[in-house]
Request: fold
Amino acid sequence: MKKIVMTVCAVCFFSGCAAIQKAPVAIATYDFSQQSASHQNPKTFQTQKKSLLITDATVPTWLDSTAIHYRLRYHNPAQSYSYASSRWIAPPAAMLTSKIRDRIITDTQGQVIKSNTIANADYTLHIDLDELVQVFDTPDDSHGMIAIRVSLIERSTRRILAQSDFKAQQESSSANAEGAVFALSAASDQLIDELIEWLALQLPPNAAPAKRHH
Reply:
């Protein structure tokens, strides 16, 4: 009888644990949507007949994941945290590279090559993604910040034509992952606007056609 009572108690105990066990938290996933309308005046590359290979952006180890990162500047600005129940749908470097390619194709008349296996490009744009994070200045105020370094390389000579650092930031609409996504999406639009302006100035113009003599 004692064994039966103990068995019943054990079953009730484990059943109770199962009943109060929390259900798994759903993971929210986000993409780089275009939040701003700042790119309404497309810039035409002077090298319309020349091609540009945009390589996949490189990133530091801590950014090579789908985590949405944030920093607490008011507490410990050197430490990076990530949201437990929110993720990017793909690593930030892949999303930013894709967005840069799409914007250059849409906003310019430059020929963009996505892979070196397809064709030989005249120029290469190398991108280093150094920062993509939500920064909290106070517990309630934050902004999204993106920082990249780019190098424009002439393929035939392997010569670096130009290098530049770009940084953009936008205020977050809320102190959470959704606010981080909105701010970083808008900051990426701003950064790409500046990158396209820079490229239009840095890419050499086509040589003028030779005049025919009659």
